[in-house]
Design brief:
- The structure holds two protein chains of two kinds.
- By secondary structure, chain A is mostly helical.
- In chain A, 67% of the residues lie in helices and 0% in strands.
- Chain A has helices at residues 2-14, 16-48, 55-62, 81-95, 100-111, 126-153, 169-180.
- The longest helix of chain A is centred in the first third of the chain and has 33 residues, at 16-48.
- By secondary structure, chain B is α/β, with parallel strands linked by helices.
- Chain B folds into two domains: 28-57; 69-197, 3-Layer(aba) Sandwich (Glutaredoxin), CATH 3.40.30.10.
- Chain B has helices at 4-14, 31-54, 98-114, 131-140, 154-159, 187-194; strands at residues 69-71, 77-79, 87-93, 120-126, 147-149, 166-170, 176-181.
- In chain B, helix 4 (131-140) links the parallel strand 4 (120-126) and strand 5.
- The longest helix of chain B has 24 residues, at 31-54.
- The radius of gyration of chain B is 33 Å and the shape is elongated.
- The chains are: A mainly alpha, B alpha/beta.
- The A-B interface holds A 67-69, 80-82, 85-86, 88-89, 109-112, 114, 124, 127, 131, 134, 138, 173-174, 177-178, 181 and B 3-5, 8, 36, 39, 43, 46, 94-96, 128-130, 133, 149, 151-154, 157.
Chain lengths: 181, 200
């Protein structure tokens, strides 16, 4: 205890400046850590900050959509103010991290199925997908049948040959009478 | 005396061997043909229904207006049938529509004129628009009557609008009484179409 007391008594006297240094060090360590942490986060935030969507990204989605106001003109090439607003909306949704499917669904919810370049295969829309292949298959079948019937109906021997001489008496007499007339 | 040729011809005509044999009766149904005909008739029926629907045309003056639901930008849901007994002024507009701006202030003035009487309801239907721009438009013209987007373009398809602005005035019995294609020419024009319906 005395020793300790002695030591405690000795310390301030031995190096008062040392304690001051330690105090400053203890204060500066958290400051350095906080500064480093903030600097790291700032750098990281700058490094991963989402880039604004490019026109190509916007148009990749826009070309799959049609504005009901400008019929038959894809959104990516439509020059009206309404279409420009739609493209801006796509840009905004992309910058918010929305996926292509989610953006398209948003437009369908807002403006109906008719904004889609390719109609969804539901309801009567499925006819659009079913009828063309069926029509093509039916056409191929009809052509196949037609070619087949032509082949069967074609004369087997088309050479100009003299008819064989009649051998039957009855036929010979018939031929004779025909010649006389 | 008949010659051999004549006999021969007569014989051939009467000969049972030379008559064309009747084709064997086929009892088996032609399922393929039946299926094709059913398919073709089904397609024609769908086509006929589509044509009939396309030729129905817009709701005309004197027609009963089918019910529709408008969800406003504030989230309020308004059904036409709930407004029975009131005159409904249904205005289709859009923020990108320049002619709509011509009548926006007049419509708001008309709404404020009729609001105390509670006999007339104004509804704005925002056609093919984006919400931020639509809200900006409402703020710009100080519009206070209920407005909402035409979700799925259902209401505009029901009325088969040809463009914006268009305004439909529906009477107390939900019967269409007036259609205005294009903007109104001032407050008096709006009042002249609504006033005759009040007190009916």
């Amino acid at each position: 205890m005395h020793v300790l007391d002695g030591q405690n008594m000795r310390l301030p006297g031995r190096d008062k400046g040392y304690l001051e240094k330690m105090k400053r060090l203890l204060i500066s360590i958290p400051l350095v850590i906080i500064t480093a942490f903030l600097a790291f986060n700032l750098g990281q935030a700058q490094g991963t900050a989402p880039q604004p969507p490019t026109d190509d990204q916007v148009n990749a989605i826009a070309k799959q959509l049609y504005c009901p106001v400008c019929e038959n003109i894809p959104l990516d090439v439509c020059g009206t103010q309404a279409c420009a607003q739609w493209r801006e909306l796509i840009r905004e949704k992309l910058s918010q991290g929305w996926s292509e499917a989610k953006i398209k669904q948003y437009f369908v919810d807002q403006y109906g199925d008719r904004v889609l370049a390719t109609p969804p295969a539901r309801g009567l829309n499925w006819l659009v997908y079913i009828i063309p292949p069926i029509a093509i298959l039916a056409g191929v079948y009809i052509l196949y049948r037609a070619f087949k019937s032509w082949k069967q109906g074609a004369p087997e021997d088309v050479q100009d040959e003299e008819p064989p001489a009649p051998t039957d008496d009855y036929v010979m007499r018939l031929e004779e009478e025909l010649r006389k007339r | 005396m008949h010659s051999l040729l004549e006999k021969s011809l007569v014989t051939e005509q009467n000969s049972p061997e030379t008559t064309t044999p009747a084709p064997p009766a086929r009892n088996r149904p032609h399922w393929g043909r039946i299926l094709v005909w059913v398919g073709v008739l089904g397609l024609l029926a769908i086509l006929a229904l589509g044509l009939r629907r396309a030729q129905q045309g817009p709701i005309t003056v004197g027609d009963k207006v089918p019910n529709f639901t408008l969800t406003t930008f504030e989230g309020e849901t308004i059904n036409l049938t709930d407004l029975k007994g009131k005159v409904v002024v249904l205005n289709f507009w859009a923020s990108w529509c320049k002619p709509c701006e011509q009548e926006a202030a007049d419509l708001e003035a008309a709404w404020r004129y009729y609001q105390p009487g509670s006999e007339v309801v104004f509804l704005g239907v925002d056609y093919v628009d984006t919400e931020p721009e639509a809200r900006g438009y409402l703020e710009k013209f100080g519009i206070t009557y209920p407005n909402g987007p035409d979700l799925g373009t259902r209401i505009s398809q029901q009325f088969r609008i040809r463009g914006v602005p268009e305004t439909y005035i529906i009477d107390q019995e939900n019967v269409l009484r007036s259609v205005q294609i294009g903007p109104y020419n001032g407050l008096n024009h709006i009042q002249s179409t609504i006033d005759p319906l009040l007190g009916e």
